[in-house]
Amino acid sequence: MRAAKRPEGELNMDPVEINAGQWYLRALRADNRIDDRPALADLGVTDPDYVARCTAQWSSDTSYSWAVCEPTTGELLAEVTLDLETGEIAARACAGQAQAASAAAESVRRFAAALNGLS
């Protein structure tokens, strides 16, 4: 897959929520309502600034990241990222959540293809 690119001069994209069947994808969060950092730690991400860095990457259109969530609780089950320079999609899942990560990665693949269709 080629890297996702939008037309020159278009404003940076705000985080986008994606429906992935049984799961939904949303931006990573670490605020007074939702804190994904404990679940990210289960995935091996222990940097306390990781969520802030991912937010900055959305703003700079370098990489997009999503928390793959259980719809009724909002619990992070996996993380999917899209590198806009390379078009690479990566996914990692909490124990027992490989299906959620796989479905989410496929949804992000379709999202990236739609972005490519804009150029």
Offer a concise description of the structure.
The protein is an alpha+beta fold and about 120 residues long.
SSE map:
Elements lengths: L17 E3 L2 E4 L10 H6 L7 H11 L2 E7 L6 E8 L5 E5 L4 H20 L2
Q: Describe the biggest sheet?
A: 5 strands, antiparallel
Low-pLDDT regions:
none
Helix content: 25-40%
Work out the strand percent. Answer: 15-25%
Q: Which structural class matches the secondary elements? A: alpha+beta
* Total domain modules: 1
Number of helices: 3
* Rg over CA atoms: 14 Å
Strand/helix succession: EEHHEEEH
Q: Tally the beta strands.
A: 5
Overall geometric form: globular
Distance between the termini: 14 Å
- List the strand order in the largest sheet: 1-2-3-4-5
Mean pLDDT: 89
Task: Describe, in plain words, how this protein is organized in 3D.
There is one protein chain. The protein has about 120 residues and is of the alpha+beta class. It has one domain (about 20-115). It is built from three helices and five strands. A five-stranded antiparallel beta sheet has the order 1-2-3-4-5, with helices on both faces. The radius of gyration is 14 Å and the shape is globular. The two termini are about 15 Å apart. The relative contact order is 0.24. The mean pLDDT is about 90.
Characteristic key phrases:
alpha+beta, about 120 residues
